[in-house]
Amino acid sequence: MDKEVDGILVAAHELKAPLALLRQLALSLDNIDAPNEHIRSEMVRVSERAIKQVNDLAKIRRLEDGLFEMEPVAVRAVCDEVARELSYLFDYNRRYLFIKYSNRERLVTANRDLLYSVVYNFLLNAMHYSGEQTRSELLVQDYSDKVKISVRDFGPSLPVDVWREMKRGFIEKPTSIAMRPGSSGLGLYIASKFSRYMNANVGAVRHRDGTSFYVELPVSKQASLFI
Amino acid sequence: MIFVIDDDVSMAECVARACKTDARIFTNAISAMEEIAAGVMPELIFLDILLDGPDGFTFLNELVSYTDTGRIPIVIVSSLNYTKSDLSNYGVVGYLNKDTMLPQEIRQYVEKYTG
After folding, report:
1. pTM, whole model, 2 decimals?
2. Does A24 contact B8 at a Cβ distance shorter than 8 Å?
3. Staple partner for A129: which of A9, A101, A155, A191, CB 3.0–4.6 Å?
4. Looking at chain A, which residue has its C-alpha nearest residue B102?
């Protein structure tokens, strides 16, 4: 593993305990009025998102051990759950999330937790880079032997070099994207690593008015026997 | 009396505070075991696993080896995921993940297992 990446993963591990503590401290506050209750809720939510990212980074170190089992996974259920978790954040930032399922409810071969993180990171990325009052789109489509999950944003278009890296199927390490200020590339790096582990195709489509990130997962043959 | 055993004092204080009853904090398993040996029998223990010195599993083994302490209900409080483990033979009655636990979940265990 790249030394720089390994350093990031070690740092992430060190952040886990203080973030969990910050969340607990916020939850421990008693007898607070309504405006402060809002601040407390935000502290909890921000901590939870940071914990999730730290946990995802910790999982990258464990990918090499092959500890994540592949199983039949219901794509729609995962997407619904991620959308539900992030709906607050979309509302709070005055963004819209449009969801369209054009697939039959076929199961795919994946690891549920890793797939959850891929969709979560794509959506978080889309929310971040879409302008206020604009929408992001979550699409699930069927192909003959695979299911494609795409997340489209209407932010700055993806630079060609990052697009090429995505086209190659994986991202070597987190890299900030100049045209997307504030980006660390961490979410895409996590999504790319997890997708690769699941033998899924990950990629991006450049639009003149934004970017779509997608992951294509093989349909579960095991489950199709029972449908 | 409730025991909270965690080498992170601030986290232990959060758990103790959520109990809303008399709770004592220990930052290592040895001092908690010494207190029990001195005759202070807790009604419930919230136990972290990764501790300085002897870890939570060593503590569980020690407790279960005596008839009286083997009956103390234990709730594992850890950042590692033990929800798929079955440690009921060690008196473990529940698991709380530090990343996601809520004060009301802590209180539910207190209400269920203390007088």
Report:
1. 0.79
2. no
3. A155
4. A27
